[in-house]
Amino acid sequence: MLTRFRALYEKLSIPFGRASLKLHLTPNFWTLFSLFAALLGMFALGAARYWFGLMMIVVMNLADMLDGATARAGNLGTAFGSVLDHCTDRYAEFMLVAGLMLNGAISPLLGMFAASGIVMASYVRAKAESMGGIKSCVVGLAGRQEKLILLVLAVIFFGVDWLLPGRIMIALVGLISHITFVQRLLFTRTKILEKPVSQA
To answer: Considering Cα of 76, then 81, then 86, then 92, what sign does the dihedral take?
Structure first.
């Protein structure tokens, strides 16, 4: 849903990318820093230190914004950088869900429901674009930002000891992720079937 604002978001983030370049910081630095923040967030959530965990989620998201902004501002984008960014994003999301499982805020079943949906929604997009020859498979109910918003709300609810609303937020993360997976799979099928068959 928020994907429609991506072009505006990228334009507004360029000044931050230029500032990063002046500090001699690279896109890959911010990608790895984002993963480090997620790791700290996992440990914080695992210890039920929700507010510190929330702060690390914000830092993680800012660093994730800066890697793309820096790449665009300095024309430093590479295919490997894009792959690294997507891989670390998946690890980061899994770490945060794992932290909530570790402290017992959510059950392993709920955690795996959410984590598997997050991974599969991203996986089908990657396969559609690499193997299916589809230029862009950024379709469906939710992208990364929608899921992060729900995750942030869950952490806030857990922080004020509202366990049920927090668990509902995590369940929604899993639900919209799995729905997005199905939508992207069907979109891919349609696009592939639309391709003309070459005549011998």
So the answer is: negative
Contacts of 44 (CB under 8 A, 6+ apart): 50, 52, 53, 56, 99
**Locate tokens 């997507």: which residue?**
86
Token duo for residue 179: 């729905």
pLDDT, tens digit (0-9, with 9 covering 90-100), for 15-36: 888 899 999 899 999 999 999 9
Q: Which two tokens stand for residue 151?
A: 């995750």
Region of residue 88 (left: phi > 0; alpha: psi -120 to 50; beta: else): alpha
Residue 128 identity? A
pLDDT confidence tier of residue 45, bands split at 50, 70 and 90: very high
Structure tokens at 82: 């894009």
Q: List the structure tokens of 41.
A: 């967030």
Q: Give the Cα separation of 106 and 103 in Å (integer).
A: 8
Task: List domains and CATH numbers for the chain.
Answer: 2-193 (1.20.120.1760)
Q: Element (H or E) spanning 4, and its range? A: none
What would the 3-class secondary structure string for 127-194 be?
Answer: HHHHCCCCCCCCCCCCCHHHHHHHHHHHHHHHHCCCHHHHHHHHHHHHHHHHHHHHHHHHHHHHHHHH
